[in-house]
Amino acid sequence: MKLLNNKMLLIVLILFSSYGIIASCTHKNEPVPAHAPTGVIINHGNHIHHPGTTAGDSTQWKFDQIHSNVTWSTAFNGVGAPLTGRFNQFGLATLTPAVMTTYATTGQPLRDSSWVFYENAPANTHFSGYVQINTSNTGAPGRDQGCYITTMGTAKAVAGTQDLSATNVAFIKTTSVAFDPAANDYIVTFNFTWQGKLGAPITESLTGKLTYVPEQVVAGTSPAYSEMGLELAFQFNCRDFGITATDIGSTITVQVNANFSNK
């Protein structure tokens, strides 16, 4: 009887094993489930923007300085929450020795036309820009025109003037622009020039990230016009430029938000 039971058990096991093999074979041609996508979707359009000053010409893009912003931040005492500020005066112009002087004007001293942007051909994109160091605005006037001026090695701002002298400007000029392989942005290499508290300006090659905000028609406008934006973020070491104050960190983060319109 025991022998018979063992034979019956063996037959049952063989039948179940055969069923498993047959069942697995019937699924051999089914596709393997696809893996969920993990990469960044990169999609560059074909927008091209050139500067101009002719009002009403929609092919010319004008720098909207009033609605743009250049801010800086650094750690307080090198370890604390960030100190922040913005520059009241800045522009998109190429600074040469011939134009680096003081202008008796409250408006833009130079044309903001040193830029071109190609969304799908970054090698054609280029820009130059500057900030006036003594126009930093932290919301604390006593500090902005007090210890800040001494720390940065410049002079107090004078009403009715725009100071583009070597001791009062930091400026950049691109050397290359390329697609960012990890995002829908661009990697920008540029020369950063500043004197700081040194005896003369020095230039360093820096890298930053550029983001394009595609042009769109502004709702409710008549005649209709479009806006587009460029955002640039980068960092530099202020110790390289002779800034030794210990109440600010060595790393300065700069964020540029530039808006343009074609009205």
- The main sheet orders its strands as 1-2-15-14-13-12-11-8-7
Q: Helix and strand succession?
A: HEEEEEEEEEHHEEEEEE
Low-pLDDT regions? 1-7, 9-32
Fraction in helix: 10-25%
What is the number of helical segments per DSSP (H or I, 4+ residues)? 3
Summarize model confidence as the mean pLDDT. Answer: 89
Instruction: Summarize the main sheet.
Output: 9 strands, mixed, barrel
β-strand amount: 35-45%
Which class best fits the helix and strand makeup?
mainly beta
| Count of individual domains | 1
Which CATH architecture would you pick?
Answer: Beta Barrel
Shape: globular
Distance between the termini: 100 Å
C-alpha Rg (nearest Å): 30 Å
Beta strands, count: 15
Q: What features would you describe in this structure?
A:
The protein has helices at 2-25, 141-144, 147-152, and strands at 48-51, 60-63, 69-75, 82-87, 90-91, 102-103, 115-118, 126-132, 136-137, 162-163, 169-179, 186-194, 202-217, 226-237, 251-261. The strands form 2 sheets. The protein has a 9-stranded mixed beta barrel with strand order 1-2-15-14-13-12-11-8-7. A hairpin with a 7-residue loop joins strand 12 and strand 13. It contains 3 helices and 15 strands. The protein has one domain: Beta Barrel (Lipocalin), CATH 2.40.128.110.
List the helices and strands and how they pair.
Layout: H1 2-25, E1 48-51, E2 60-63, E3 69-75, E4 82-87, E5 90-91, E6 102-103, E7 115-118, E8 126-132, E9 136-137, H2 141-144, H3 147-152, E10 162-163, E11 169-179, E12 186-194, E13 202-217, E14 226-237, E15 251-261
Parallel strand pairs: 1-2
Antiparallel strand pairs: 1-7, 2-15, 3-4, 3-15, 4-9, 5-8, 6-10, 7-8, 8-11, 11-12, 12-13, 13-14, 14-15
